[in-house]
Amino acid sequence: MTSHTRLAVAASAGACALALGVCAPALAGQQDQAMVSVFHGIPGMTVDVYANGDELIGDFKPGTVTDPKSLDAGTYDIKIFEAGKDPAGTPALEKKIEVPEGANATVAAHLSADGTPELTAFTNDVSRVDAGKARLTVRHVAAAPAVDVRAGGQPVFSNLTNPKEDTAEVDAGTLNTDVVLAGTDTVAIGPADLKLGEGTSNVVYAWGSADDKNLALATQTFSGMASSPRGVPAGGSGAAVAPNSSDLSPAWAAGAGAVAVAGVLVARRVARRRG
Amino acid sequence: MGVTDRGETAVPDEPSVAGWYRYGPAPGSASGSAVLVGHVDSDTGAIGEFAALYDVRRGDGVEVRRAGAEPVRYRVVSRVTVPKNELPSSAFRRTGAPALTLITCAPPFVPERGGYLSDLVVAAEPVKSGRAQWPT
């Protein structure tokens, strides 16, 4: 059973890194699970979300995203109703969504480029990022034409169309971003500061409607993807070992020898950066 | 200290100064390994503060003084030399039992291969303040 599970996970590309690196402890003994969150990006309508007839989320407001929830892997019949409506009736939106074992997915209820409500399932990349980095993903789920996403005035993603996404690993820190109509300097959303914590994966939804002038950004953050630095370049001339011999008789022995107790180290406490 | 373009930790240029790896836990944190890095020597030939780690032994005390907080005390539990860029992942862990990890360069020193070929990794665990046992 275990080997079967590993094979299945290994075969499912990027998503498996999450299952192994982040979710494995929580899912021990229940390997047929997936992490699912839901984003609501249809302006002006509070909804109830049902999965296979069971209420998953109630009174779900536009512009919000739920925390990831562990669900059995499988196929879900997702139905979206205006809040309080009878779930036996005709849903505002319905789609069958397949959630593979070990996946981390976000189901987005949003407008198409021409303003029609629809459901799209995205796979969240929660594999590790390099030390000092953060992952930035932008999903175009707005009733709007193609856009470019800029950071500090420079394009990060170009010609992104609904319902596509693009992703990049960037330096951790605060990014001043805006969204412009593709190939222009016409700002559609922003500017907005995005705080990208080191070792996190940040998904930004560009949602709403250009015609209704309610385009906005919503952010979903996953953490726990940090990596160790590649090394510590802490050497210089070799003076600490080299001077008169090839062994470990060090130049500083005279001074350090008197210190029977370890040296007292003073670390400058730097304001801790939190993302 | 952050991370350089080469994916390594930044290390203070001044060899008498140790640096804290700011993406990890701070010394005194309730969990994870707080990492301090320092030069063993500098390009100018000065001996670094962390050269003192060559003399550190298991059981030695380490005190980290903090601005605006009480000092935190640790006791050395291990000292290992590892090949350059093969640091144990436990050194940079963000979770688990609190620890302090001190890292500097270690011999062999081979200039034609870039200098030091190893790292010295000193791991320390907190000394519980309730039963402070400072080494004598």
Give a structural overview.
- The complex is a heterodimer of chains A (275) and B (136).
- Chain A is built from 3 helices and 17 strands.
- With 275 residues, chain A is mainly beta.
- Chain A folds into 2 domains: 1-124, Immunoglobulin-like (Sandwich); 129-240, Carboxypeptidase-like, regulatory domain (Immunoglobulin-like), CATH 2.60.40.1120.
- In chain A, the strands form 4 sheets. A 4-stranded mixed sheet of chain A has the order 4-1-7-8. Chain A has a 4-stranded antiparallel sheet with strand order 3-2-5-6, with no helix packed on it. Chain A has a 4-stranded mixed sheet with strand order 12-9-15-16, with no helix packed on it.
- In chain A, a hairpin with a 5-residue loop joins strand 13 and strand 14.
- The longest helix of chain A is centred in the N-terminal third of the chain and has 13 residues, at 15-27.
- Chain A starts with a helix and ends in a 9-residue tail after the last strand.
- Chain B contains no helices and 6 strands.
- In chain B, a hairpin with a 4-residue loop joins strand 5 (99-110) and strand 6.
Write the topology of this structure.
The complex is a heterodimer of chains A (275) and B (136).
Chain A: H1 2-10, H2 15-27, E1 33-41, E2 47-51, E3 54-60, E4 69-72, E5 74-82, E6 93-99, E7 104-111, E8 117-123, E9 133-143, E10 147-151, E11 154-160, E12 165-171, E13 173-181, E14 187-196, E15 201-209, E16 216-222, H3 253-257, E17 265-266
Parallel strand pairs in A: 1-7, 9-15
Antiparallel strand pairs in A: 1-4, 2-3, 2-5, 5-6, 7-8, 9-12, 10-11, 10-13, 13-14, 15-16
Chain B: E1 19-20, E2 33-37, E3 61-66, E4 69-83, E5 99-110, E6 115-126
Parallel strand pairs in B: 2-5
Antiparallel strand pairs in B: 1-2, 3-4, 4-6, 5-6
